[in-house]
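Re: export button greyed out
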Amino acid sequence: MTTSQASPAPPAQAAPGAPPGSAGSAGSAGSASSAGLPRWALPLAGAAVAVAAYVAFRGTATLPHDDDAAPFQLVNDLRAWVDANRNRSPLFLFFVNYVRLFVGGLYDVFHLVLSLPGWAGLTGVAAGLGWLTGGRRIGLTAALGFGSFGVLGLWEASVATLALVLTAVLLSLLIGLPLGVWAGRSPRLRRLLAPVLDVMQIMPTFAYLAPMVLFFQIGPASAAVATMIYSIPPAIRITALAIEQVSASAVEASTSLGATRWQTLRKVQLPMARATIGLAVNQTIMMALSMVVIAALIAAPGLGSDIIRGLTRANVGLMLPAGVAIVVMAVVLDRITMSAATRAPYETAGRTRWIVAGALAVGGVALGRALPAEFPQEWVLRFAGPVNEAVAWAKFSWYGFTDAVRNLTTEALLNPLQSVLTGSPWWLVSAVVLAVAWRTGGPRPAAVAVGCLLATAPLGLWQHTMETLTTVLVAVALTLIAGLLLGIAAARSPRFAAVQRPLLDAAQTMPAFVYLLPALALFGATRFTAIFASVIYAIPPVVRLVEDGIRNVSPAAVEAALSCGSTDRQLLWKVRLPLARRAILLAANQGIVMTLAMVVVGGLVGAGGLGYDVVSGFSQRSDFGMGFAAGVATVLLGIMLDRITQGADERNSTPGSNRMTTRKKRIA
Amino acid sequence: MRIAHRIRLLAGVLTLGLAAGCGGATVDTGTGTGTASAAPSAGGTQASAGGTVKIAVNPWAGYEASAAVIAHLLEEKLGYTVEKKELAEQVSWEGFENGDVDVIVENWGHEDLKKTFIEDKKVAVEAGSTGNKGVIGWYIPKWMADEYPGITDYKNLNKYAHLFKTSESGDKGQLLFGDPSYVSHEKALIKNLKLDYKVVVGGSEAALIESATQAQQQKKPLLFYFWDPHWLFSKVELARVSLPPYTEGCDADAEKIACDYAELDLDKIVSKKFADTGGKAYELVKNFSWTNEHQNSVANDITNNGMSAEDAAKKWIDANPDVWAAWVPK
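Workaround output, generated via the alternate export path:
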């Protein structure tokens, strides 16, 4: 996971670029913390200095946006070269083009195999697989799930999506599992991979769609490769963690009995890590599914295309069935892989189970032979009409309220903050980031954070970075407020938690695009729409972390407070929340990373800033360079925010494992 | 039958891949997966003719209407299978190169892309006009034109900029734009005409339509990017803002554009491969040509009358046999 020593190279060099005066003052702020002043004095003084500097230097040393910045042109030139040499350069003739052919062929094979048994056949096979891994319940889930694709009227699209996901997952696992095993045994490789994987996960998916098109053209092949980039990190990370966590004494025992490294790996480490590796497979599938929609922008076949269509026509009824189908597919694949992974290591499925599973599969296929290949039209449930009516009604009757909420947030929060951030001199913003990161995490994260921030300036994207930072800050603030409230409520009332959980699950699995549209309908094409959508997107993990954090406060502490006569309110504010501080900071960290991902998608609906640059770079050839640079700037911004919050988290804990477990739970 | 077809395709891909072995693989190696639009098999009746035509569907209703009508005729009258792909304009062109796109049914100018893909790379060819005249422009609701004298002249826009202020445009006037992938001179125009406006991106055609409808119903000021042909003109009264008139070549340098959009003869672009081997499907695409009214009626059915693109196309085809009969090759 992202540990602080894994600092990317460029920021470290860029850091000295900050003017000596500001760096010095922040430095003294850090070292003076041991003096006998009250705890709040220093931050307050720091804030006062920053405000004074802002008032004095406002409007100077800003870095306004320029559409023709040199880095953009450089990338554009590179693009022109690739375009011209695609059929000439050996790199393409003997490598890139073969990769495309191979991946595309693999997709065709999967698609063919999945289409052969017909809808009844595939449903039967899925049910059999479910029964085999998890018994009756999972078998039934799988059957109902696959059946629902047909009922939603999306059978063929679902099969295409499934084929694409399986292609990407298979390739991801082929590369990711061995790398993960290797990384689990070699700390050096792990350190080397960590920043690369970080970039792969924070990089907005839009940003690598354009390069994908450049190298692999459009179609299933490049969609599968783009999906792989997104789904490999959990495969590597969780596998590495699994191998690493195998008890050292077991490995010790095995080597002392004379086993070779290979034998130890095969007979001890892999079997003992099996359940966690299962989780790696599971997460890889979930990540791949979440890319399905975005990949549709480069002609990936399947469900994503319906969602894109709904988005461009502002038709919620068109995209909702596809969104539901993606959620259902995620649930079915999740249940099957999880039950396969969590079975006791040496338990084999009983004979009856095999028989039932086999019967289901064979029966399904036989039925598929007998029935027509097309899913019967009369079984299809169509609800586009009612859904659209409901949306129109909500839009009409809530107009006054939504309008007020949007305008209030925009005028009171967004616009002032944005004008402060874009109007401040660059050195002042950097100094503040340095001071905050230093205070939360210490010198090292501070240097990385400020280095990342400064690197956006030579990219030519300072102003847009500030605009995006504004949106992210507001979205994170709203997410945290809402997340804290819901999390506290859930921790206090199990019934509320039980009602809330399935909603959170759905919010997390639903492709982000699906709620971009209702947000668009309610709030129009504004930054607030993007903020609203990212709040929904980021709330689930925040609520979960807060709930867990408060629940896990040691009962002894609660008992002690109660016996001292503290009220419910005091218990919450003085005991539970402070003791859950670490979980809450972690929630902030998670919230930031997810919000950032969503704000870029928000570029599609008027979020502006880096998000729009990335989107525009994908759809307009002349903006290719800017789009790519904006993708890089988003990563830099993500690392900066991560370092600031991560430091706060790690100062109070043992670094490592906890962050890992939470992030791997995230179904982006 | 479809499955057997797929197996054949797959075999084709594999052999092509192997055959290309020694010389490396070029981009169009393996287009077997893509353009299967080979001529309908000899001797078969029309209905059993094989082949898949891949039509790019760009994100606006008029385009979807044209695509739906062509797709319906290809499927029902000539027995082809049609794959529609939701793609942005410029991305669609990339698909010509490796065979993922056969047809773009409504192209708006794009001289730069024509140069790259038709002249330089020779992977695409023009397939004639759609019969639609297209023009992009800046529009305001008609009530504004009545209420504020001279507002339709760009020279007076600065005077009225305060009317168009929104929470997104700050202290400037807002110029609402559509999908990020649309043809756009807005930034250059604002800069070169020294207008006190900011482009705010709505993200889609739907956002433009909705804002325009609201602007009429609730008498809200709005300045927005729009285009003709469009059914909206029959629902909402709009007035066009006149920019400095278009002259030949005034839009040659994207940075220096200070003139209105040209009126375009919208045309169809197909991949070279489709033109060579597309047979009757290519003939039909080439022959396709209709009026703005035709397109608007289909687009209107799709957007406002709750019809799917397929149903709207079918309705138009049933009502206008004399128009499309000339397109279908004998």
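Strands of chain B lie at 52-57, 81-86, 103-107, 124-141, 173-177, 197-201, 224-228, 238-241, 264-271. The button fix ships in the next patch.
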